[in-house]
Amino acid sequence: MSLLQLDQATIKFGGLIAVNSVSFELKKGDLFGLIGPNGAGKTTCFNLITGVYKPTSGKITFDGKEIGGTPANKIANLGIARTFQNIRLFKSLSVLENVVVGGFLRHKTPLLSALAYMPNVIKETESLKAEALELLKIVNLDKVADVRSADLSYGMQRRLEIARAMATQPKLLLLDEPAAGMNPQEKEELNAMVKHIRDEVGLTVLLIEHDMRFVMSLCERIVVLDAGKEIAAGPPDAIRSDPKVIAAYLGEAV
Amino acid sequence: MKFWGVRLASILGAVAFCFLLEAVAQGQSSFVQRLFVLAGLYVTLAVSLNLINGITGQFSIGHAAFYQVGAYTAGFCASRFFAQMNLPPAAWLLLMMVTSAITAGLAGLLVGLPSLRLKGDYLAIVTLGFGEIIRIFAQNQEALGGAYGLTVAPKIQYVWAAWLLAILCIAVCRNLLRSAHGLPFLAVREDEIASSAMGVNVTQTKVVAFVLGSMFAGAAGAILAHFESFVSPPMFTMDVSFTIVTMVVLGGTGSITGSVLAAILLFYLPEKMRDFTNIPLAGVAAAFVAISAAVFAIRWVMQNFHGSTKDRAIRYLGILVGAVVIWFLSKALLGNVPSLKENIDGSKLRMVVFSVTLVVLMLLRPQGMLGHHEFSWDWVRSKFGKPTVKEATA
Amino acid sequence: MTVFPHLLAGLELSTLPQQLVNGILLGAIYALIALGYTMVYGVLKLINFAHGEVFMLGAYTALFTSWSFGFTEVGNKQDSSPGILILMLIVSMTVCGVVGVLIERFAYRPMRSQPRIASLITAIGISLLLQYGGQLFLPSSPPPSISDKVNPFKGNIEIPLKPADSALLAQAEQLKAKVTSTKAAYDEQLKSEKDSFNLSPVGKELRTASQDAERDYRNAIDKANKDALVITLPQGQVIMLVTTVILMVILTWLVMRTTAGRAMRAASLDFDAASLMGINVNTVIAFTFFIGSALAGAGAMMNASFLGGTKIDTFFGMLPGVKAFVAAVLGGIGNIPGAVLGGILMGLAETMVIWAGYGNYKDAIAFIVLIVVLLVKPGGLLGSNKVEKV
């Protein structure tokens, strides 16, 4: 069954068509890659799926529901979580607090009880914190739970973003260049982590990445965008040898 | 049942504290009683503005508007309905606090909803403008007493009411920050886009902060109206808003304890200065010179000297001594200028002190006072035995 | 117009042209101040809250300059000359320019690496410091004003739009004859009266008749005058407008044609890129502050000298400052022609509010305009809307 489906999704900014009739489909449990040269419209695609932008035309369906143009917070509630290319953590909050914000959308107690700090709120806060700590263990950040997130190293911040996104307990996780700025060893760990998230936690993952070796070794299916258009789709081996893809990355002259 | 025991004890403690203040104030002159009440009101105003400015990060500089809405609501209701209701003063005051909180909350909703699309300095200007519109509106409304103002009967002068409200306001803000419910507010301050990606309804969060903050300001207004038994537009000018902003900024935006301490300090300092009636103008001018010199010297040391804390402290001490020397020298020098020979009243320095505080603070410690609240929270954490950031990373 | 008849009741359409002209004259001053806001915002993305206080200092400088020429309240100097006015203008502009540069250097520059709210708080602090600190050192109670004698351009320029109705004029003329005759009769009677404070019945009757005739005549003349459309322009205000236009032309030349202006425009497009291209951004910012503040100084000097008896205190700049800021936002902040357009529109809006009989709300209209603009078209009339990149 398809979890996410883009059908001719298009967005224009003034005269620029950033994403031009892109269609692809994610099945539950997929580990899906979205690649393409700089400016191909990959992040814009993410922004369309997560409700930052409203598509000019086309349909985006998630879990049987049309979600094009739905506000970002509602989409998060429907079960799509994301990370950001240029890390967007809540910088002055602690690592643990960052993750609790992610889990907060499942809160049940009303605000008024929180203002009075009623026992049910205390309990809920405790359980959200406990859950967050569990997630921090998965991304191996539990030892720095009380550190201000801005003080973390770059790789740790990327992992924290993943933990924060997972805290919303999504059905679909979007990772925007999770390996950017990581050294080979960190990339190894990330690779294992994403696989763990898919296999053990059972999430569907869609990721944007520039590092070809990383994408090819991780993803089972890949879509390639260039200048807003979809130019190829298929398993890594097919993509690797696709002449259009090679042309897009290396230029026509090759 | 342990929870309810602790809760009951803390409520009783708060009430006892308020009535203790009341008892202490009763023996004092009416001037001192006034200080007690106004200090309580300013604590409420500063902490409630901090909820909007510091915790939610929506820089509002028109808080006096909600204070005014509250005060006028109470004044208007008292002039129309008090005689018929036949309530004891305490009950009436509580009723008015609730009513004023509701009207001010509605005003907060009115400002909050459209202002949400604005950021930073634009939001600041709009809140300032809203405050002025409310004031000018009241000034031209005959039913509200026009430019002259509204006499509020009965006069109800309870110190406990002001402080009960202040403690309630502090408790609410602290509870919010202690529970997970406070995190979306902080998250909105840090990054709106990331917040909404995490399912936080950014609009709703900002509106809630605006409404809650306004409600407390409104309730404070009701107490003010009955305490002064008079409300008029000049009581709610931009100065009042700026005073509250200075308190929040000095205390450290986001830090509740900071707001409380700053509110009390900034309220009492100018009051204390009223006692000095013959301040030589040359001395004030010399203070400007000395403070400017000291600020830039300290900035220079902060930027160019990276020695040990002890060496630093010695340098700062040196600057302090130097500033005093400069003050004496320039005072002697400026004393010869004929136009600086007169003496002025200490009360005239009130807003000057606030403005100098703002500028000096921004020049020397903006980061500690701005949103990131490292200073205050580390301090609170260390009080509870949790490791501070530096220790944990080390 | 018929939706709110009670709102517009009592509107005198005949005074509309005069009010429109007043609005433009007022708007020119707002435009001059708005230019300072918009230029600084363009380069630094900072709302220079203290700009209104620079305007206030400009007025004080003009006052002190006029005093130094002997136009004090007790002075008996009688005649001024355009030369003195030009000198006052230049001194005000220079002093304000220097003050602006100093404020930038010592208050805003240290804040540049900090979050924008830090700059905003500093700006508010400087503004309050100048208002309340100025109160200690500048004469402000009672508020002084620049002597009317400084302005040699007295008298009005009258532009007739439509002459008075001739029938009405003739009617008035007829009544005038009656005034003369009854007055003569009364004067005649007065000679025979013993006590001019206790008239005989005949005398009283004649006096009433004379007074009635006079009143009728005045009413008729008023009616005739109201029918005529004449726009009255005080000469001083015309000179203000001309000077403002000249200054704006010079500014346009500076910004569009000189190297410094090009550097300024580059910095406002992309601050970092401009500095990488070898533009000394500190110089550009200082230059921007100097020009913007000097324009405010010019506006202040003219405002204080040509509108006779304008009282100056340390809050003199607050309202014009706020209104000019709104003008800048209305036109699209950061956009120079937008500031001029916004200024004129603000002036018109204000006089229209007065014209509609809501003079008490003339200070509120600025904020109402501001809120509406920010909600409907946050980029302003000539500005652009930017989307935050994710």
How would the blueprint of this fold be written?
The complex is a heterotrimer of chains A (254), B (394) and C (390).
Chain A: E1 2-13, E2 16-27, E3 31-35, H1 42-49, E4 57-62, E5 65-66, H2 72-78, E6 80-82, H3 95-103, H4 111-116, H5 119-138, H6 154-167, E7 172-176, H7 184-201, E8 204-208, H8 212-218, E9 221-226, E10 229-234, H9 236-241, H10 243-250
Helix pairs in contact in A: 3-5, 3-6, 5-6
Chain B: H1 2-26, H2 30-55, H3 64-85, H4 89-115, H5 120-139, E1 150-151, H6 159-178, H7 182-190, H8 192-197, H9 202-228, E2 230-231, H10 238-251, H11 256-273, E3 279-280, H12 281-304, H13 309-334, E4 343-344, H14 350-364, H15 374-383, H16 389-393
Antiparallel strand pairs in B: 1-2, 3-4
Chain C: H1 5-8, H2 16-44, H3 51-68, H4 82-108, H5 116-137, E1 156-162, H6 166-192, H7 201-227, E2 229-234, H8 235-257, H9 259-269, H10 271-276, H11 281-306, H12 318-331, H13 336-355, H14 362-376
Antiparallel strand pairs in C: 1-2
Helix pairs in contact in C: 2-8, 2-9, 2-11, 2-12, 2-13, 3-4, 3-11, 3-12, 4-11, 6-7, 8-9, 8-11, 9-11, 12-13, 12-14, 13-14
Explain what this protein looks like in three dimensions.
The complex is a heterotrimer of chains A (about 250), B (about 400) and C (about 400). With about 250 residues, chain A is α/β, with parallel strands linked by helices. In chain A, about 40% of the residues lie in helices and about 25% in strands. A six-stranded mixed beta sheet of chain A has the order 6-7-8-3-9-10, sandwiched between helices. In chain A, strands 2-1-4-5 form a four-stranded antiparallel beta sheet, covered by helices on one side. In chain A, helix 3 packs across helix 5, helix 3 runs parallel beside helix 6 (about 155-165) and helix 5 packs across helix 6. Chain B has about 400 residues and is mainly α. Chain B contains 16 helices and four strands. In chain C, helix 6 packs antiparallel against helix 7 (about 200-225). In chain C, strands 1-2 form a two-stranded antiparallel ribbon. By secondary structure, chain C is mainly alpha-helical. Chain C has two domains: about 15-155 and about 235-375, ABC transporter involved in vitamin B12 uptake, BtuC (Orthogonal Bundle); about 165-225. Chain C is elongated, with a radius of gyration of 27 Å. Chains in contact: A-B, A-C, B-C. Chains B and C meet through helix 5, helix 10, helix 12 and helix 14 of B and helix 5, helix 12 and helix 14 of C.
